[in-house]
Amino acid sequence: MLRRRPSPAFATCTTCLWLIVGPMLLAAEARPNPWPVGTSPGLTSLAKASEQNRYAYVFFWKAEGEATQRNRDAFDAALATLANRADAISVCVAAPEEKPTVDAFKVSRAPMPLVLAIAPNGAVTKAWPLDFQAATAGEGVVSDGAAACLKAIQNNKLVLVSVQNSLTAHSDEALQAAAGFLNDARFAAVAEGVVLDPADPLEARFLADLKVLPTTEKAITVLLAPPGTPVATFVGAVSTAAIVAKVTDAKSGCCPDGKCGPGQCCPGGKCDPAQKSTPKGVSK
Amino acid sequence: MNLRTLVWRELLERKAQMLTVAFGIILGMTTLIAIRTISFYSEKAVARELDSLGANVLVLPKAVSLQDYYAADMHHEVIPEEYVMRLTMSDLQGVDNLSPKLCVPVTVADRRYSLTGILPKSEFQAKAAWAGAGIFSRPIGCGVIDMGDTPPEEDKKMLTRKRVIKDLAADEILVGADVAARQKIHEGDSLPLLGKTFTVIAVLPETGTVDDSRIFAHLHTVQELSKAGEVVNCIEIVGCCKEIAAGLVESVNTLLPDAKVVTVKQVVDTQITLNRMIERLSQIFLAIIVLVGGAGIANAMSANVSERRREIGTLMALGAESWLIQRIFLSKAALLGLIGGVGGYAIGTILAVTLGPKLAGVPVLPMPGLAVWALVISVGVALAASCIPAWRASQLDPVATFRET
């Protein structure tokens, strides 16, 4: 699935290309609510927040105590400042009625108290175990592009981020290569695509994390793998074969780009960089 | 009367003395062979484990000592399981994988094994991406990317190599090669453990480590059955070497101040030091055998020559040359060395194979190459120690020996 983030600057593309990419983009528009309603108070609140396109900050706690109270006070204070963007939800993990919520996040053995920031699409955008810092609460609100990538990564999928607009060169080739990769039977079920505009100020922080300049003159394609590792960055024109080669390489090799030595961190120790293929058009 | 008859009669003349000498050589060689065999397989297991694991970090309870990597998770001390989540959700760089373990003893057909609780990756994988969008700015990871498309059967069989598997149901177990072979367990069999019936979903390939004697089940099932609570004995971290060098251990220590954090290299170094100590000990044994055994043989031979001066004189008077006299005594010494070498190798190997797995925690097999080594040393020492007495015997004056009363 290739998800396109709204961008007024990005307008042109070939008809043929849109015939390929279009259905994927349409699929992205109708985002299903990630949470079931009525199974638990926590999940119902999450579903409500998602429906209203709001973030949810969930305060998980096990038992009353000094740490719980201190964190709850910080949580309440922080959420008061984020009231226009996020809902506050409190979940006691020991309460039987909240078992579906606890199971959904698999936090029964997590350090408590725990605060999770959850985007409208269901992605956990930040976690604060044991010690919630009100000053960092805003870090849980991320751009739509970052939330889409996090969601895919948390579903153990690869993400192909296409950074381009009408001003970047090789945009069509990059988009075609991405569509080809996402339609490949080997990767269709385990990969998602996200299109970003480098000039979009809302994505500036996320693009900086990806080391993409907002002034880039060429389309850039970044391949991310769980748990958030940037596996490859393709600058300018790229082919589906080059992306597939990079994924195959990273899957079969023990050290992407040969950064580890034999007998060190790679099981089996087969880390000879000379054995690594470097497809044309790949730069890192 | 030929040389063989002479040597044989010479040997049987004083049985008690010869038996004592042979026993001394056998005892020395037994010790030497047993130590060398066990230390060889122990070192081999350490090297193999290092190769398969690479740079790793262990999170252990404070009270646990670092005597043995293989038994690093086999103790009664525990740490909270929540440490796994703390590590997973942290912004630590260089943590490639995690493998918490809880070991409890179980008995299968009167044999004790370790039921090891492990946490499948599906329980904590997504949480690694809970650290926020900042995770995308981290440096490239050190391991192979996992798209989760490895066939489940293959994924489970790679447990001992990759230290972690994707999924494991509450009633499923994976059985080590040694357990499966001894108990004749096959995939699909049912096995009752701690009052619960499990299905064997895979028999793990042989690794030559203590993992062969383990039965792996879901950590939460093991916790529940053993009533141990939400705890683990050890958390193994598959870390990136570069980040370990850059201070990953210190970062984990800061994150988990109530735990002991060590690299496997440190544990292995401890074991290598122990192996070297055993190796040096075996060298000291060798020196003692050469000195004491050699002196004993030389003494016995000298006494033998002194006692049999008249017989030697008679032989020489009958025309025996000096060389024949030397050959009688040297052949006798070589025979004693041969008996000592063969006996020492056989008993030492039996001891190593039976006691080695208990002492060193690794499977030990016979080493045929050591048989040659044992024979060369025992025969060599016996011959060297007998050279002077044999030479003295060959230099006797027959007339002088007859004059002695």
Low-pLDDT ranges of chain A = 5-20, 22-29, 255-284
Physical arrangement of strands within the biggest beta sheet of chain B: 6-7-5-8-4-3-10-1-11
Sheet with the most strands, sense and barrel status of chain A: 6 strands, mixed
Helix % of chain B is 40-55%
Widest sheet, order of strands of chain A: 1-7-6-8-9-10
Largest interface, chains and sizes: A-B, 61 and 48 residues
- Beta-strand fraction estimate of chain B: 15-25%
Counting DSSP H or I runs of 4 or more residues, the number of helices of chain A is 8
Describe the structure.
- The complex is a heterodimer of chains A (284) and B (405).
- Chain A has 284 residues and is α/β, with parallel strands linked by helices.
- Chain A folds into two domains: 2-29 and 144-283, 3-Layer(aba) Sandwich (Glutaredoxin); 41-120, Glutaredoxin (3-Layer(aba) Sandwich).
- Chain A contains eight helices and ten strands.
- In chain A, α6 (171-183) links the parallel β6 and β7.
- In chain A, α6 crosses α8 (240-252).
- With 405 residues, chain B is of the alpha+beta class.
- Chain B has helices spanning 3-13, 15-53, 82-89, 152-157, 159-162, 177-183, 219-226, 241-245, 248-255, 264-307, 309-317, 322-360, 369-394, 398-403; strands at residues 56-61, 79-80, 95-108, 111-118, 172-175, 190-193, 196-203, 214-218, 231-232, 234-239, 259-263.
- Chain B has a nine-stranded mixed beta sheet with strand order 6-7-5-8-4-3-10-1-11.
- Chain B starts with a helix and ends with a helix.
- The mean pLDDT of chain B is 80.
- At the A-B interface, β5, α5, α7, β9 and α8 of A face α2, α3 and α8 of B.
